[in-house]
Structure formats: C-alpha cells, structure tokens
Amino acid sequence: MKNYYYLNGNQQIGPFPAEEFSKQPVGPDTLVWADGLPDWKRRTDVPEINALFLGQQPTTPPAYPLQQGGYPTQGYQQPYPQQGYGSMPMGHIPPKTWLVESILVTLFCCLPFGIVGIINASKVESRFRMGDMQGARHASDEAGRWTKIGFFVAIGGWIIYMALIFLGIVAGIGSNQY
Hints:
Elements: E1 4-8, E2 11-16, H1 18-21, E3 31-34, E4 41-42, H2 47-53, H3 99-108, H4 111-129, H5 133-176
Helix pairs in contact: 3-4, 3-5, 4-5
C-alpha cells in the first residue's frame, strides 16, 4: 500500500493511505510526495495524486477556538505520527553531506578548498529537511567536488615538497664530495 504526504508550510503531514489522503486539505499547488517519487511536487504535477482529488474540493482543517496563550482548546492532531528521518518520509535517504571529509581536508590538507566544502556540506541537510532534494543533491555534489579537489591538491603539494627535499639532500651530498 502506497503512503502519501503533503507539506503544510515546512511541516510534513502524513503518511496517509490513498483514501484518507484524498480527504486532506491539499490544494492544487500544495507540495506532495508519495512512495516512489524522487522529490516533492505540486499536486497537479503528479497525475496519480491529482486523480485522487478530482471531483473533490480540498477542505480546510477545522478551526478550534484558542485558549488564553494561543493553544487550541481541542487538540488538532495529525492522524498519524511523523515517521522517517527528520521531517522527511521514510524511503528518502539524504545525500552524503561530506562534512567530516571537508573538515579533515580543512584541518590537514588545504584550507580554502576545505572551507568551500564545509559551506556546501552544511547546505545538504538543511535543503533535504526543506524537501529540496535537487538542491540537497547539488550541494552534496559541490561539497564532494571541493573536498576531493582540496585532498588531491594537498597530495600534489606533499609530493612536490618531498621531491624538493630529496633533491636538496642529493645536491647536498654531491656538493660535499669535492
């Protein structure tokens, strides 16, 4: 059985089976996600989900009178508890952040490239939690690219450094023979 979710602001609501999902206050521009979809999409961009709502007007959540302090007198609860990693549904795996590798490159290899890697690595999880899978993947790719560039530049620098030391030793030995 397929599960369906929607976003209310930045809050993920769901999972719902198809019958219950069609009763939710999901408008045509509401971002929705279902098992098997790569990203959050507008309801009207997913024919399978849009078909659930054809012929039905989205309803709005019931308004409960607020108590003093802004809390509802009756609890409006989501029909199902949140599941999955953070606020994302299960089945979505966040892209690799490259944060640890970026920090190690910054500390031991190449500071400028490592910092760029850290900046991009920090964007991966925040974009993932906002439901921007494409942005999270792009930030992950950028973090990985700058981390690898920093690592290989540092390896090249160490090789050149060791070669110069070796040449210096050989030149020193050669100059002492005469």
